[in-house]
Amino acid sequence: MKKCYAVITGLLLWQAHTFAQTPKAKAPQQQQGQGQQARPNMPQIGHLYGKLIDAKTGKPIEYGSVTLLKLRDSSLVTGMLTKANGDFSLENLPFGPLILRINFMGYTSMQKKVTITGQTMEQDLGNIKMQQNIKTLQSVEVTGQKSAFTMGIDKKIFNVDRNLTSVGGTAQDVLKSIPSVNIDLDGNVTVRNAAPNIFVDGKPSTLTLDQIPADAIESVELITNPSAKYDAEGMSGILNIVLKKNRKAGFNGAVNAGIGTGNKYNGGANINIRQGKFNVFANYNINSNHNWADGSTNRSNYRSKGAVSDTNYLLQNSNSTSKPLFQFGRFGLDYTLDNRNTISLAQNIVGGDFKSHENLSSIFSDKDHHATGQSNRINDNNFNFRNYTTLLSFRHTYAKPNKEWTADMNYNSSSNGRSGDYITQAQNAMGAPIGQALMQNNTTSGKTTFMTIQTDYTNPVGKNGKLELGAKATLRNYTSLYNVYDKDTITGEYINNPLLSNNYKYNEEIYAGYANFANTIGNFGYQAGLRVEQYVYAGENEGVKYKPTKAVPGLYPSLFLSQKLKKDQELQLNYSRRVNRPSFFQLIPYRDYSDPQNQREGNPNLKPEYTNSLEFSYVKNWTNSNFLGSVYFRNTNNMISTISTPIGADTLLTQFINANRSNSYGAELTMKNQIVKGWDLTTNVNLYQTDMKVNANGQNFDNSGFSWFGKINSETKLPANFTVQVNATYQAPTIALPASSGSGGGGRGGGGGGFNQIPSSAQGTIKGFSTVDLAVRKDFLKNKAASLTLSLSDIFNTRQYELNQASPAFAQDYIRKRESRILKLNFSYRFGKFDTALFKKKKKDQNNDTQMGDQMQSF
């Protein structure tokens, strides 16, 4: 561990030292996001639009001439005549300085230098009033090619199309390579050692991470300390997964296919067509990822009968296989009513089918380690789900720059079904069967409807101010019917077991409103906001109703202060209050017996946990690098945790409880830079201390410890269009913190409990682990339209989970290893043409002006 710590710390110090001494460029250039200068021959994706009106009457000017010329030689770039409502829209603009020229008979001609750089994707020039005085237009900057990593103080954006190690995988593989993010074997996500709230396209989703293919993801946004504009749910901020949707003129798309060791394959295609007022997109992905898992539990149970010790031991071993098949489809369209009004509709259709098999053996021993009995349990399960999500949104922008209003509705409906067979055979100390095997069958059917309705309004105030207002409603209904049948050893019939069966449902409603105001005074900036959320919950099981503590409106303030310094430096201080509400599965008092020696039970008396988060950050930008350093403190009251208690001779019961409190504080350092031309390196280190106090079942438990987490992502461009990417991760030993209900994990696609579920408890310590992933890509054909990617995950096969627990009543070592060293080969081919006149005849107007779309450029 010390060696790993020294290596990562040394890299950070070396990078900072190297780039602190980098000579300044002769002419500073704006960089994309955090200073990456535009490269030549980049895709032409700039977009300028606006409206010509008469300065006196306010009426639109039709047939006004709007042209763009190159500043260097005054050659024509593109142009058009304004429409009947005065609108104009210039697309596919190149990088560099241009001249915007506006002419119309009877009005004074106007022109202005316009610089297309890498700052913003689109720019609304507003209502341009034509009169005798020249209207000066503000400079415009349009986003160019995406950087792999855009780093800010409150948000980090990772464009994952350049992430080679996740090609052909799922959202889990994407997040594994992102700084600050840690994922366990079951797909549970933590950021800064706590669970974030996970969104898809800015909205909550019922999809788990392994149900989202990596090839469908455009980018991932990480907001460690969100403002009042965002949902208050999530202890450590928000992870937003942005799905692909192109807006390039003409048509473009891609196809991909891949295979992997251990019977794994994937394939998919996407296409986007933009013509006139319509932008249509669709994609489809299929993924089969067979895998295996092994595990063992070694437990000592300390009991006493009066003054006599009655210690006994349990040894369990598990071997399991899983055969999932996922299909992901998405299609939609954007319809532009005019330059300032757009309606969007999107539909996601996701389906999955699973087959799993587990063999669980148990050996029971006395205090002298002599075997007293054994058992063998075989679990076979079939699981399927279907998920449908419809998104309807409207966006209106105003002539006033940066003023806009949006309205969205997101409706999700999902269903699932499961059938399983369990065979348990008791054995004597020598492993010989005792009596007949106990046979059980279970069936599950469930349905969820989930809807969000949201509206947001942004209005600039004064020179630098901004007011944000919004409201949101979240409605969720869930039903599930679970039946367990025991086989009668005499008649052979299956009889319902009411002790294990349940029929439960719940509904929750969250109504929220927020207000944010931001402004700058010189180099000092501030933002203050308040979010109000009303939470309503009701659940029942077999007619018995459960409710958490009385729902009252929750207040969630946020405050951001920033100070810009000389030489591209900035300081920022942030505060926010957040909440994590217990899920229904944590509340329902149903006991899970799927592993008889490791039972689980919910707690209807759970309370929400509340977190106060404080963060101080420093950012520094150089020409080819940037550094972000943060120190943070997080205080959580009523923290939701678990505690394990021995019941019977050899069984543990794990229950959810509210810890008294938990404090976590630490420092996170992120350095992104270009070591030499063609070699980019991103290093992330998080050092933290966690202290937790628990009072449950008349016992007090204090669990605390220091730990750290580090990641290094390296990308190197080699001759002959080769690219090599290496991602390395190390997690030092840390105290066990349970995965929150808001983690968005669920790596088993909704699979049930049992031995395959990783236990988590306030009583344990998780052993450290490391992993290294490698990928090589070769681009070929014209314009690098095709590529082959060869990737190897967990090169040294070191990724596993080990939990050590100790208490006066028991001590337990739990080890789990899932297939992680996987070799994959993926092929992709990109196609398309930039052509704004794809479906209509090209023509020239009477003045022989060149129309947009006369030029067709290969993708």
Automatic annotation (TrEMBL):
Source organism superkingdom: Bacteria
Protease as UniProt keyword: no
InterPro entries reported in the protein's UniProt record: Beta-barrel_TonB_sf, CarboxyPept-like_regulatory, OMP_b-brl_3, Plug_dom, Plug_dom_sf, TonB-dep_rcpt-like
Signal sequence interval, chain numbering: 1-20
Pfam families: CarbopepD_reg_2 (PF13715), OMP_b-brl_3 (PF14905), Plug (PF07715)
Domain Outer membrane protein beta-barrel: 396-737, 760-829
Protein name: Outer membrane receptor protein involved in Fe transport
Record's bilayer topology term: Multi-pass membrane protein
Major localization listed first in the record, in broad terms: membrane
Domain TonB-dependent receptor plug as annotated: residue spans: 170-238
Family: Belongs to the TonB-dependent receptor family.
Cell compartment(s), UniProt: Cell outer membrane
Annotated Gene Ontology cellular component terms: cell outer membrane
Organism this protein belongs to: Chitinophaga niastensis
UniProt keyword terms in alphabetical order: Cell outer membrane, Membrane, Receptor, Signal, Transmembrane, Transmembrane beta strand, Transport
